[in-house]
Structure to design on (273 residues):
């Protein structure tokens, strides 16, 4: 798919596990690609009492950087206003058991955001949290902790469904991020069929009037090789009338546009479009 005019899932130099390339490089690349709009959605700070399970403790933006992040995007939005529409967004983690903290964060910062994505990265298995997409080795360990790959897949999709039904207040994000992220290492593991789970997510998203992040990052992951969600699910979502928005999930300017060649021909939208 080449006719993409909006990227709704772009990271920034404020991401500890990403690139330190300046915002301007992302924007210039978006303009080169012919985009009309770009949405910066950095990983929002995690709840204060949530222990980041990664060795580097770098899953999200620091709370101390949040105000600077918002100001930086506001500054480039003004400078580039005649060239491209730039949105201030965040990727909000839905973490089971931390709904109250997440709602409080959204109540505080939601009014200054143009856009937001609700994603599941952290899975609670047997009262311990793990990061689903850190590495294949970590995925294997998390599977064992959950009682097997079948149980981990089940827990992931249960958590996505919880994110859809959760009361996170008036500023709850209206777009679901990479809803098949559990498939990131699918070529390395014997994962169970998850079509019924994805269909349940589509039904819940439709009922809740949420849109989907059509995420190209999985295409370039060597152990995945497909978008999040897979093409057949994207096509079914379109038939159901669920709004779809392309997201590169770029953590470096070179990542803008990634995965487009493996997306089915569906109608993609943009906020307000």
């Amino acid at each position: 798919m080449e006719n993409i005019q909006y990227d709704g899932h772009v990271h920034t130099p404020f991401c500890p596990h990403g690139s330190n390339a300046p915002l301007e490089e992302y924007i210039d690349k978006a303009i080169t690609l012919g985009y009309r709009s770009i949405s910066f959605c950095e990983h929002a700070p995690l709840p204060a009492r949530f222990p980041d399970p990664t060795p580097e403790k770098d899953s999200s933006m620091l709370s101390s950087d949040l105000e600077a992040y918002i100001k930086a995007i506001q500054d480039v939005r003004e400078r580039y206003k005649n060239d491209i529409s730039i949105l201030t967004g965040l990727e909000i983690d839905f973490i089971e058991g931390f709904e109250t903290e997440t709602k409080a964060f959204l109540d505080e910062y939601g009014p200054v955001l143009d856009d937001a994505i609700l994603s599941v990265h952290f899975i609670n298995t047997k009262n311990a949290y793990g990061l689903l997409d850190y590495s294949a080795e970590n995925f294997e360990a998390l599977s064992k902790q959950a009682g097997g790959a079948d149980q981990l897949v089940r827990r992931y999709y249960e958590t996505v469904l919880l994110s859809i039904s959760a009361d996170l207040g008036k500023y709850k994000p209206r777009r679901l991020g990479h809803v098949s992220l559990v498939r990131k290492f699918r070529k390395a593991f014997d994962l169970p069929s998850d079509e019924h789970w994805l269909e349940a997510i589509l039904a819940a998203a439709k009922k809740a009037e949420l849109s989907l992040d059509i995420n190209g990052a999985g295409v370039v992951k060597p152990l995945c090789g497909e978008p999040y969600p897979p093409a057949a699910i994207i096509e079914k979502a379109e038939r159901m009338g669920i709004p779809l928005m392309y997201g590169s999930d770029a953590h470096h300017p070179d990542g803008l546009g990634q995965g487009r060649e493996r997306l089915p021909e569906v109608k993609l939208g943009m906020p307000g479009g």
About this structure: Residues 149-165 form the longest helix (17 residues). The helical segments are 23-32, 66-79, 99-109, 136-146, 149-165, 195-208, 217-220, 231-239. The first strand starts at residue 6 and ends at 10. Residues 6-262 form a domain with the TIM Barrel fold (CATH 3.20.20.140).
